[in-house]
Design a protein that fits this description.
Elements: E1 8-12, H1 17-27, E2 31-36, E3 51-52, E4 55-56, H2 57-62, E5 66-71, H3 76-87, E6 91-94, H4 100-103, H5 108-114, E7 119-124, H6 139-145, H7 167-190, E8 195-199, H8 200-205, H9 209-218, E9 235-239, E10 244-248, H10 252-262, H11 276-281, H12 283-294, H13 299-309, E11 313-315, H14 319-323, H15 326-330, E12 334-339, E13 343-348, H16 372-378, H17 383-391, E14 395-396
Parallel strand pairs: 1-2, 1-6, 2-5, 6-7, 7-8
Antiparallel strand pairs: 3-4, 5-14, 9-10, 10-11, 12-13
Helix pairs in contact: 1-7
């Protein structure tokens, strides 16, 4: 059941960053109870198309392994339900704008009095402190402000490009899960919970390590370089006779192996390419010289030759091709999970292997209010009390 079996998590989060955090913990065995708003639930439920069996594919892929309850936190009864859930919880995850939880009297200060051991994880656009703490945040905005968009794309003078994936959303969720685990270790040692605070902005910044190193050292901001690397060459995509491949000859040994595979030993003694420093200073000339070579053969031919020579290289796959790649399958990164309405649906697997406590995909994402009755009864509500809460609109149950 995973290394976090027995950990109880309340997820008050929507769309992607917070749900990513909850999903990571759920995959590791935590009992994650997803609390959705009334009416409508998580906004990802309306991110359609595509749909599978009438359910949002976007919602389903972010919320597997969780149980779902729909609570109207604008009602006294709904807030009372949440407090009862939190009394016995280990972790709460929320990604609302600053002040939202406090207005409902369910912010950190109120909840830690109720449960001193509570780990309270907040994921926001810019963090809970600093001049931007009041701002809402989205992945696009964070990618722009963190520097990521300035180093992504074909090069200077071209339109800004964001990473195709919502990188800051997903990374913030993973950072949140890391923060929860750090706080959990501290609680095991001391019995004390604490607040954990991370943001999309910081999630973007941590992806600029190489470019920040260059900027700190030179006082100049690195620019976009297409698929090339800011510190090593050749390390980029090259066009072949029938497509594109990536080549990672990022050290001197691999550079020499590449020359042998290309049958281009004449470049070995060219002073412009003799060292990595020289290759970086003459990157455009190097790219042109290698592009001429790669254009003569097919991608499959080059990949076979480069693998035989020991040069790191690979094809550029689209997402469907990646789903069918034998390594992705062997590592369990494409799996299926049972959903109440959509049947068996494909999903992306958990990215970490545990030798003794493996992660497990136990259930599909909840339909709206799917586990409301069961969760309330687990927390001491009678069937009649549960029905009363449903009738008064404090909670919603899917029967």
């Amino acid at each position: 059941m995973g290394p976090l079996k027995g950990l109880k998590v309340i997820e008050l989060a929507h769309i992607m960053a917070g749900p990513t955090c909850g999903m990571m913990l759920a995959d590791m065995g935590a009992d994650v109870i997803k609390v959705e708003k009334v009416p409508g639930g998580d906004d990802a439920r309306r991110m359609i198309p595509p749909e599978i069996g009438g359910e949002s594919a976007a919602f389903m892929i972010m919320n597997r392994n969780k149980r779902g309850i729909a609570i109207n936190l604008k009602t006294d009864g709904g807030r009372a339900v949440l407090r009862r859930l939190i009394e016995g919880a280990d972790v709460i995850i929320e990604n609302y704008r600053k002040g939202t939880m406090e207005k409902l009297d369910i912010g950190y200060d109120a909840l830690c009095k109720l449960n001193p051991g509570l780990i309270y994880c907040e994921i926001s656009g810019f963090g809970r402190t600093g001049p931007y703490a009041e701002r809402g945040g989205f992945d696009l905005i964070a990618q722009g402000m963190s520097g990521l968009m300035s180093i992504t794309g074909e090069g200077p003078g071209r339109a800004p490009v964001k990473c195709g994936a919502p990188m800051t959303d997903i990374t913030a969720g993973i950072l949140g899960a890391m923060g929860v685990l750090g706080a959990y270790i501290h609680r095991l040692r001391t019995g004390k919970g604490q607040r954990v605070d991370t943001s999309l902005f910081e999630a973007g910044i941590v992806h600029t390590y190489w470019q920040s190193a260059i900027a700190f050292a030179t006082g100049e901001a690195p620019k976009a370089m297409g698929s090339a690397h800011p510190l090593n060459a050749p390390y980029q995509a090259f066009q072949t006779r029938d497509g594109w491949i990536t080549v990672g000859a990022a050290n001197q040994n691999n550079w020499l192996k590449l020359l042998a595979a290309l049958e281009a030993e004449s470049l070995k003694d060219d002073p412009r390419f003799r060292s990595n420093d020289a290759r970086m200073r003459n990157l455009e000339v190097l790219q042109d010289a290698l592009a001429d070579k790669f254009g003569y053969r097919t991608s499959a031919d080059w990949l076979e030759r480069l693998q035989r020579a020991g040069v790191p290289a690979g094809p550029i796959l689209d997402v469907l091709q990646m789903h069918h790649d034998p390594q992705a399958r062997a590592r369990g990164m494409v799996q299926s999970v049972a959903h109440r309405r959509a049947g068996n649906v494909h999903t992306v697997g958990h990215p970490v292997r545990y030798a003794d406590t493996p992660a497990e995909l136990r259930r599909g994402a909840p339909v709206y209010g799917e586990h409301t009755r069961a969760i309330l009864e687990e927390h001491g509500y009678s069937k009649q009390q549960t029905q009363t809460l449903i009738d008064e609109g404090a909670v919603v149950a899917s029967d």
